[in-house]
Amino acid sequence: MANNIFVIGYYGYDNIGDDAMQQGLSEIFKYRTYGDLRFYHKGQSLIKGFLWADDIVLGGGTHLRDWGKGWLKQSARILLLGLISKLSGKDFYMFNVGIESSWLGLLAHCISDEITIRDENSFDSSVVLNYEPKIKQKILGISLTPYYKLFYNDENKDSLLANNLMEKVKKWLLFHKDWNVVFFNFNKSDEGLNFYASTLIDNAEVRLFKKNVVNVLQDISECSAFIGMRYHSSMFAYITETPMVIIDTYPSCSKLSGFIGANLITKEKILNGNFELDFVKAKLSVATAKSLAFGGVKL
User: Helix/strand/coil (H, E, C) string of the chain?
Assistant: First the structure.
């Protein structure tokens, strides 16, 4: 008898990246054999889903880190989930996860039956999403996130980063005068910083957070260049084959840049003003990434 699978993630918490991984996993699971499949969403009973399931899957996200605000509580919660799953006789899997600590990674391997991280061997499930691309326009898309506020309670650094980055954007626009600048919000917490940055660019547009993952992907496909600060904002630029610059907000961003062949700018260089904008299309084909994503869900 095939097992029932309960997939747990931050689905429905106003974060496009998490919802994109959930939809990607849904697509991949169509080609797997199992009894029944349920995804945990905000407002549902986690305990009921856990008791119902034979197998537990942690389905994506940067869950294990040993830096920044709240890391201990977050990591302990995930490790405890795995431990309880194993003690209850359930298989425990971690797919599409960001592990940004070597010692937490070792602990995770001790309690997991299978782990796939978002790397060149397994890739992120969001890459398999189906969408209808729009015709590309002369749009520079930008998606910022208040990294320093979220993890270090330092809004001043976020403002400095936005100021320095927009100075370079304004210089870039001198040679691209017929282009428009559009800011995208991949999480509701991003809106404040994106609104602030938009005031530094004449006639810039800000698009509020949207819950519909495919609609956001279609909107990004209309851009001809993109600056991504969140992992999945960069992923969406990659999926839509948009020339991009990735800011190394998280270790997962720098890793993504490395294995898809996209340009990366460090936060430190932006804060120092020592950088230039050079938009290039990623070298790794999306078709290759899709095959890696399907192979990365080993159930």
Answer: CCCCEEEECCCCCCEHHHHHHHHHHHHHHCCCCCCCEEECCCCCCHHHHHHHCCEEEEEEEEEEECCCCCHHHHHHHHHHHHHHHHHCCCEEEEEEEEEECHHHHHHHHHHCCEEEECCCCCCCHHHHCCCCCCCCCCEEEEECCCHHHHHHCCHHHHHHHHHHHHHHHHHHHCCCCCCEEEEECCEHHHHHHHHHHHCCCCCCEEECCCCCHHHHHHHHHCCCEEEECCHHHHHHHHHCCCCEEEECCCHHHHHHHHHHCCEEECHHHHHHCCCCCCCECCCCCHHHHHHHHHHHCCC
pLDDT at 99: 84
Distance CA 113, CA 219 (A): 38
Give the separation between CA 95 and CA 66, rounded to whole angstroms.
Answer: 19
Say how far residue 177 (Cα) sits from the centre of its chain: 31
Copy the structure tokens of residue 134: 């729009």
pLDDT-based confidence at residue 294 (cuts at 50, 70, 90): confident
One-letter amino acid for residue 108 of the chain = A
Distance CA 134, CA 39 (A): 30
Q: Report pLDDT digits (tens) over 188-235.
A: 999 999 999 999 999 999 999 999 999 999 999 999 999 999 999 999
Query: Mean pLDDT throughout 151-167?
Result: 97
